[in-house]
Amino acid sequence: MSDQTRIHVGGALPLERLRSMSGLDIVRAMGEAALPVPPILLFFGFRPVEIEDGRVVFAATPDERHYNPLGTVHGGYIAALLDSTMGCAVHTTLPPGQLYTTLEFKVNFTRAITAGVDIHAEGNVLHRGRSVATAEARLYDARRRLLAHATTSCMIFAADREPNG
């Protein structure tokens, strides 16, 4: 999938659309710019490059806007990228009428990241149960050096019900 030729529009999907499509179809349609992507992906410049059942890869190129006071990419940027990747990987496993929300996630940072470095986050579902899914993600640079890794637990619920209700 070429992320250079597609124009992505940000926005929330109507609940009716979420109820009628599988998670894999939703994530693929967002990757193909057929559906709006979450605005945070546009804000941070996260680009979907691979989408399959239980696996998603995002690319990004952070710049100086993403720096912390020490002159490296802020951990929040990295955490958002890993959380998005893991969440989308879980989303690809859901049938129509089901949604998910992150219950918790943990991030380990292994190398500092500076502006202009192309990075790829690879997210994979580890377990998909009836009400809980777990996933992991690894963040690499172009030389395949591990920059960070994370795990998550997500709650799965019916689209007609609130995640906390």
UniProtKB/TrEMBL annotation:
- Keywords, sorted A to Z: Hydrolase
- Start and end of every Thioesterase domain? 71-147
- What GO molecular function terms would the record report? 1,4-dihydroxy-2-naphthoyl-CoA thioesterase activity
Indicate yes or no for the key word Hydrolase: yes
- GO cellular component labels: cytosol
NCBIfam families for the chain? unchar_dom_1
Write the protein's name. Answer: Phenylacetic acid degradation protein
Biological source species: Methylosinus sporium
Residues annotated as coiled-coil are: none
